[in-house]
Design goal:
Blueprint (H helix, E strand, L loop, with lengths): L2 H6 L2 H45 L3 E5 L5 E4 L1 H4 L2 H6 L6 E6 L2 E10 L2 E8 L1 H40 L5 H26 L6 E4 L2 H11 L7 E6 L4 E4 L1 H21 L5 E10 L2 E8 L25 H11 L3 E5 L4 E7 L1
Parallel strand pairs: 7-9
Antiparallel strand pairs: 1-2, 1-5, 3-4, 4-5, 6-8, 9-10, 10-12, 11-12
């Protein structure tokens, strides 16, 4: 301030000026503190919003008026190509992208667009399985009665056949057994698995495996080896035998699809603390699509129906166990608590 102006002021005016300046400075401090508080609140709010959108079970983008991304969560970051496929002119629709299904919802707020994509692949899969299961169960019921009659007639035919023709009837009976297995597996899959727990020795499963192999129709030269532990477990013996049957048949089919002249299948049991592992090794062809190994009604096998492994997983899950697959060496394994 000009010194001449200050000199021209009397003491009262100078005092008023000083008080005014003091009040201005104090108000500046107040505004500065309020700004800091407002900025902290804004930062905290933005952080909270970021945390909220991160826990959302969907990919979420917020776009400005020029369709540029101003905010997105981690799920959205992982799928940069998904946003490019979304029709921003629609508000609610389903989109198939990268072998998955997404429910797309788009809302506008002022000049911004909120886009979210929810993965509904499991829901779509369950709908498909439910409808397929209904049809499969109906067909299984329709097939069951005539197959029973054919099975009975084949037994009569076997008794009356000449010795040189009995092997033909045996092949017919094996084919009938295969149809019966498919029917029973279908009905068990659609009705759901209910375990009946009883104590038994694991070595009893070897007889079940040998009987299953004897009832299966295959041409490959295969060496079977069984290493069952002398160990008692509490489980559903018939259902575990069914799982091993499915794993053995898968192994046989894999060998038949391979170019191996000498196939081998080994069933080995191992105990680790309070867990027991039953492993089925084979040297057949490898699994082509590992993502769909346990998917119902999907198979890459020439003789497959897409139910064996899916049903087997249901059975092991019902035992609170694990059914898994290892590539090197190739084997399926069952893990159960003793």
């Amino acid at each position: 301030m000009d010194e001449n102006i200050l000199k021209s002021l009397d003491s009262s005016e100078k005092e008023n000026l000083q008080q005014g300046l003091k009040a201005l400075i104090e108000q500046t401090y107040v505004i500065e503190n309020e700004y800091k508080q407002l900025n902290e609140n804004y930062t905290a709010l933005r952080q909270m919003v970021s945390e909220i959108i991160e826990v959302l079970p969907m990919a979420l983008w917020i776009l400005d008026a020029n369709k540029n991304i101003i905010l997105q969560n981690n799920l959205a970051t992982q799928k940069p190509k998904l946003l490019e496929c979304i029709d921003l002119d629609k508000t609610h629709y389903e989109l198939e992208f990268d072998h998955k299904f997404y429910l797309i919802k788009i809302t506008s707020h002022t000049d911004k667009l909120i886009v979210n994509a929810t993965d509904i692949s499991d829901e779509k899969r369950n709908e498909r399985l439910a409808s397929m299961g209904t049809v499969a169960a109906h067909l299984a019921h329709e097939i069951r009665n005539p197959i029973g009659s054919i099975s009975l007639l084949s037994s009569t035919l076997f008794e009356r056949s000449e010795l040189k023709n009995k092997h033909i009837v045996l092949e017919i009976q094996k084919a009938i057994s295969r149809v019966e297995r498919i029917v029973n597996s279908t009905l068990l899959f659609t009705k759901g698995v209910h375990v009946n727990l009883n104590e038994f020795n694991l070595q009893e499963l070897q007889d079940e495996c040998e009987q299953a192999i004897g009832a299966y129709n295959y041409l490959a030269n295969i060496d079977f080896k069984f290493e069952f532990l002398d160990l008692k477990i509490n489980a559903d013996k018939s259902l575990l035998a069914l799982v091993l049957q499915n794993l053995l048949y898968n192994a046989i089919d894999a060998i038949e699809e391979s170019e191996n002249d000498d196939g081998y299948i080994k069933v080995k049991c191992e105990q680790k603390e309070d867990r027991v592992f039953i492993k089925v090794y084979d040297n057949g062809v490898s699994i082509k699509d590992k993502k769909m190994v346990f998917e119902a009604f999907k198979t890459t096998k020439l003789k497959g129906n897409g139910l064996g492994l899916s049903l087997s997983k249901q059975i092991i899950d019902a035992h609170n166990g694990v059914l898994g697959f290892d590539e090197n060496p190739k084997c399926f394994f069952i893990e159960l608590k003793i």
